[in-house]
Each structure stands twice: as C-alpha cells, then as structure tokens.
Amino acid sequence: MESRDDKLIAIIGLLSACLIGVVFLFTMTWLTDVRHPVDPTLDVQTCPQNRVNTQQS
Predict the structure, then answer these.
(1) Degrees to nearest 5, angle at CA 1 with 17 and 14
(2) With left for phi above 0 and alpha for psi between -120 and 50, is residue 30 left, alpha or beta?
(3) Could you give the CA distance from residue 23 to residue 10 in angstroms, rounded to a whole number?
(4) Distance, CA of 9 to CA of 17 (rounded, Å)
(5) Quick one: CA dihedral 30, 34, 39, 44, positive or negative?
(6) How many angstroms separate the Cα of 26 from the Cα of each of 32, 34, 43, 46?
(7) Rounded CA gap, 9 and 4, in Å?
(8) H-state helical runs in the chain
(9) Is 45 in a helix, a strand, or coil?
(10) How far is residue 39 from each of residues 24, 25, 31, 48, measured CA to CA in Å?
C-alpha cells in the first residue's frame, strides 16, 4: 500500500508542477502583451484607402 501512496503523491506533484508552469507562462505572456507600447504611427482609421485596379479584358 505504501507503493500506491508514493505513486499517487508523485502524480499529484507532477500535475501541480505542470499547472504552476502553465500559469506562469500564461501570466508572463499576458504581462508582456499588456506592457507592450502601442505604436502611435500605425492607426488603422487614418490609413488611406488603396484603389483596387481591376483588369478588364
């Protein structure tokens, strides 16, 4: 019975470590995205519209 308890504790520890790793990576990615400065030169609403040239045959 000791062997089963050891395996169960090992699996729980492994799953907990994976969960902590995923949460850490998600948090770091989110913080990097939130703190990224917005480029003021790129404004979608002020971009001029390009003409679409269609070829007529």
Answers:
(1) 5
(2) alpha
(3) 20
(4) 12
(5) positive
(6) 10, 12, 28, 33
(7) 9
(8) 2-34
(9) helix
(10) 27, 25, 17, 18
pLDDT tens for residues 6-23?
999 999 999 999 999 999
| 24 token code pair | 């850490």
What letter would DSSP give residue 51? P
Q: Residue 49: pLDDT band by 50, 70, 90 thresholds?
A: low
pTM listed for this prediction: 0.55
pLDDT, residue 26, reads 96
> What is the distance between the alpha carbons of residues 36 and 28, in angstroms, rounded to a whole number?
12
